[in-house]
Every structure is written in structure tokens, then in C-alpha cells.
Amino acid sequence: MDISLVAGLLALGAAVGFAAGMLGIGGGMLLVPFMTMILTAKQFPHEHIVHMAIATSLATIMFTSISSVRAHHARGAVLWNVVKLLAPGILIGSWIGPWIGAQLNSSALALSFAVFVAFSATQMLLDKKPAAARNLPAAPGMFAAGGGIGVLAGLVGAGGGFVSVPFMTWCNVKIHNAVATSAALGFPIALAGTLSNVYFGMREANLPSGSLGFIYLPALLVIALASVMTAPLGARTAHKLPVKTLKKVFAVMLYSLAGYMLYKSFN
């Protein structure tokens, strides 16, 4: 990789790590659009660009999740009982998501990303108050919810926070706990999704050197190095922000990225 590419990926990794810690989103919502821009500028094979951006994003989340969840756990914010109930479904769904993505072309995949992210941003921005009696579902419902979160996260290369945070707040989980718990859920999502992207990507031809399946290893190394250093800072920032501010930051960022991926789906 040339110096300009390394510098760009380091800056991206730092921003992704901070966002992962602050918003519990794993960083994929930031990483996928910017990775798509970088790979496009470097003239990677057009038919693989979005797939590689998504796969590399998921692999990176394995590192950002561990870093950010340690900071949240130190504050006692992670609801580990919720993690245990959602994780089995998430593992299965996160394997299926990349398989679905492998059947889609880059334009369809980019459009899917934009739609899912815009929906999540709208839910967060509207800030509708859940019914006072609404709680998280029982174990079967949590397994199903985890499966849905995993499929969507694996499909669009995110840590699942764009679904799991709105889901938990809808069930009366406090936003700071939802963000922290979502950070913990990022690891099983990323692990299953990464293995799935390696498996399905190994069948593809015309992938650039340095690829492991759909994962671009040089970018993974640089981004992970930077992101694990800034994720704890993002986590500390999250606990200093008021709830409404945190939700607005989350929503505005997601709208911006959805707009870019919508543009990419038509170009």
C-alpha cells in the first residue's frame, strides 16, 4: 500500500473506533461507505468493491468491539444477560447475512445498506417513547430478534447497533445501556460474519492480492490498529453526553452515510 492509502486508513480507523465506542455501532456504518470510496478510488474490481468493504468492515469490528466493550464494562453499563440471550441467534444470522449478500450485485447491496440505515436513523430521530409496560421479550423472542439483527448486520457489514440499539430502547432499555450492550454484541456478529465472508469469498475470481475471501487484509490491519486505540475514548464520551444528544448524533451520522450509499447504488 502507498503512504496516502495508509494515512487515509489510519484516519478512518481512528474515526471508526471512536464511533464504535460512543454509539455502540461497531463502526461499520462509517467504515463501509468510506471503504467503498477508497476501494473505488484505487480502482478495485467494480463487482467486488461493496462486498469487500462490507467484509473488511465486519473483520475490523472484532477488534473495535473488544476495545469499546472493555471501557463500557468498566462502567457497569453492559447488560450481559441480554448479550447471552441475543448472541445465539446473532451467530446464526451473521453467517446467513453474508451468504445473502454474495447473491446480490454491488448496486443492490449498496441500496440495501442505504435503506436499512435510513430506517434506523428515522427510528432514532423520532425518539418515540415506548409503552411503559414494554420489556424485552422472553428467550424465544430474544433468539428470533438476535437472528434478525445478525442477518441484517452480516448483510451490510455493521456491528448490528443500527438495529440492536433501537430495538433495546424500544423495549425500555436506557440508551447508555443499549449502546454498551450493542458494543458487546458486535463481537459474535463480526466473528460469524467474517468467517462467512472468507468462506463465500474464496469462491470468487478476480479478487486483488492481499485478499482473504472478500476481506482486504492490508486495510484490516491498518484500520484495526487505529480503531482499538480510539474506541475507549468514544466510550468515555458516550457516558458524558445526555440521552437526546446521543440519539441525535446517532441519527444524523446514519442519514449522511445512507445518502452516500444510495448514491453509490445508482453509480
Automatic annotation (TrEMBL):
<dbReference type="Pfam" id="PF01925">
    <property type="entry name" value="TauE"/>
</dbReference>
<keyword id="KW-0812">Transmembrane</keyword>
<keyword id="KW-0472">Membrane</keyword>
<dbReference type="GO" id="GO:0005886">
    <property type="term" value="C:plasma membrane"/>
</dbReference>
<comment type="similarity">
    <text>Belongs to the 4-toluene sulfonate uptake permease (TSUP) (TC 2.A.102) family.</text>
</comment>
<protein>
    <recommendedName>
        <fullName>Probable membrane transporter protein</fullName>
    </recommendedName>
</protein>
<feature type="transmembrane region" description="Helical">
    <location>
        <begin position="212"/>
        <end position="233"/>
    </location>
</feature>
<keyword id="KW-1133">Transmembrane helix</keyword>
<keyword id="KW-1003">Cell membrane</keyword>
<feature type="transmembrane region" description="Helical">
    <location>
        <begin position="138"/>
        <end position="158"/>
    </location>
</feature>
<feature type="transmembrane region" description="Helical">
    <location>
        <begin position="48"/>
        <end position="66"/>
    </location>
</feature>
<dbReference type="InterPro" id="IPR002781">
    <property type="entry name" value="TM_pro_TauE-like"/>
</dbReference>
<feature type="transmembrane region" description="Helical">
    <location>
        <begin position="78"/>
        <end position="96"/>
    </location>
</feature>
<feature type="transmembrane region" description="Helical">
    <location>
        <begin position="178"/>
        <end position="200"/>
    </location>
</feature>
<feature type="transmembrane region" description="Helical">
    <location>
        <begin position="108"/>
        <end position="126"/>
    </location>
</feature>
<feature type="transmembrane region" description="Helical">
    <location>
        <begin position="245"/>
        <end position="263"/>
    </location>
</feature>
